[in-house]
Amino acid sequence: MIGASNKLNPLDSSSSTTTVTGGITNKIITDVITPLVDSAFYSYLSRCNLKTYTVRLTLVVAELYLLLGQSSAFAKLSRSALKPESFYVESMKLFEKLIDSKLLESTSNAKLIERVAYIYYFHDQPPSIKDTQPLPKIQREDYYEQQNPDKLKNPGIACFGMAKRRKSILWLLLACKELDLTLRPTQVKLLINCIERDLHDGEEAEAEANFDGDGSSESRAKMHNRFNWLYRENSMLHRMKLELYGE
Q1: 103 near 51, Cβ under 8 Å?
Q2: How far, in whole angstroms, is CA 161 from its chain's centroid?
Q3: For every one of its 247 residues, what pLDDT tens digit does the chain have, with 9 covering 90 and above?
Q4: CA–CA separation, 238 vs 190, rounded Å?
Q5: What is any Pfam family matched here (predicted)?
């Protein structure tokens, strides 16, 4: 895996070649890396009964996939044969495989779930969208089109499907559920603070993109109504806050 990725360094910004060639491909992942990891996972766990080696192998490969995705995403001239999302998906598969194997205790599983949420969070900041220039606005000369304050504005549909903010929040909730509130109250509080911060940031961003964008309380209220289900009395977030803060 390291050898294939070193054929072309995604962070190398030299202008010798600008085409997307070399590096890890889907064929290398499907035919070489995935069978090797699956075989080693089975051998360490079932034949040798080496739980530590199984966990270490899966974590190292998952983190390498994450590192390759980040290096490809944040490079100005990425020459990787795969998109960053492909590496993120492979990394999440290995983390989920380790979580489903039940080899670790609840606290360690919660940290793995946090890593999955961390990967999903990167989908909310696609470099390809941030680096591109915004589309020019079409100027309409119609008087009523310009002066109508109640007309809905078109959202940024170019970014639809790129963000994974809600999935990141969901995995953070699962991490809170995995932790014991009586033994790890500080960690649960930190996760809840991250969830509410991400919710607040998401509301502000969507209010600017989909509504008037003036930051008014009315715009924020419209977006906040979409997340009211998280604060219902029978919701997981409400029950956790009730046990922690007694609210």
Answers
A1: yes
A2: 12
A3: 655 555 544 444 444 444 444 578 889 999 999 999 999 999 999 999 999 999 999 999 999 999 988 888 777 666 667 888 889 999 999 999 999 999 999 999 999 999 999 999 877 554 444 444 454 555 555 555 556 666 666 655 555 556 688 888 889 999 999 998 888 889 999 998 888 888 776 555 554 455 444 445 555 555 555 566 667 777 888 888 888 877 5
A4: 15
A5: TRAPPC-Trs85
What are the C-alpha distances in Å from 42 to residues 29, 33, 60, 89, 95? 18, 14, 16, 21, 16
Read off the DSSP letter of residue 229.
G
Phi, psi of 50 (to 5 degrees): -110, 90
Specify the DSSP element, H or E, that contains 144: helix 143-147
Query: What angle do helix axes 84-100 and 34-42 make, rounded to 10 degrees?
Result: 10
> Could you tell me the residue ranges of all domains in the chain?
1-103
- Cβ atoms of residues 4 and 28 within 8 Å: yes
CA 20 vs. chain centroid, Å, equals 25
Residue matched to tokens 């932790």: 179
| 155: its two tokens | 């959202």
